[in-house]
Specification:
Layout: H1 5-25, H2 32-39, H3 43-49, H4 53-77, H5 82-99, H6 106-113, H7 120-146, H8 155-176, H9 180-195
Length: 197
């Protein structure tokens, strides 16, 4: 049976509310009653769509994944050749971390609240990070294919290095409330890129 638009809107309002509250306050600190009140839905409506808070958190992480990856891709796509597209990852991190007032990665924040690596919320976190690694690998592969100067790039190793730099920058900037280390990470990566390893 098809859901009517009002029902779909209610579900989306709940997810939008979680996108704000879970990110701003944290998952464990946010109660279902607050989500219900701020989404403007009844308890019955909430539980119809999300039988548990954990179910809502899965939907939150899936929605956040699409939003965050969209932001990243928009920055990448504002450049037209492989080298600036690759380095735009650092521009994205700088802009995003400042815009979110250094609240950091929604996925790492959830991982810190849910220590069991086999938990289904952690599987969503891993899925997001795997996608980020695929994007970074693709950018390096494009550079290797497009520019003879980079034909010998060790794509897998550099992708791992770039991924680790990104994760480190996100955590450090969140911790210090400062984006200064992004420039240092970019310099380090450019040096690695020149060596091709």
């Amino acid at each position: 049976m098809k859901k009517n638009p009002t029902e779909s809107e209610a579900r989306q309002r709940i997810i939008d509310t979680a996108l704000d509250l879970f990110y701003r306050q944290g998952y464990l600190a946010t109660g279902i009653n607050q989500v219900i009140a701020e989404a403007g839905v009844s308890k019955n409506t909430f539980y119809y769509y999300f039988p548990s808070k954990e179910d809502l958190c899965v939907a939150y992480l899936q929605a956040r994944h699409l939003v965050w990856m969209g932001w990243l891709q928009n920055t990448i796509d504002s450049y037209h050749t492989p080298y600036p597209r690759l380095l735009s990852v650092f521009e994205f991190l700088d802009n995003w971390l400042r815009d979110c007032n250094f609240r950091g990665c929604a996925f790492l924040n959830i991982a810190s609240e849910v220590p069991d690596i086999n938990h289904r919320l952690r599987r969503e976190v891993i899925s997001h990070k795997d996608e980020l690694r695929r994007v970074l690998t693709g950018l390096l592969d494009d550079l290797r294919r497009d520019d003879p100067k980079y034909a010998g790039l060790h794509v897998a190793g550099l992708a791992d290095s770039l991924y680790l730099l990104c994760e480190g920058v996100i955590s450090a900037c969140q911790n210090y409330g400062d984006a200064a280390l992004i420039g240092r990470a970019r310099e380090q990566f450019v040096s690695q890129l020149k060596m091709g390893k």
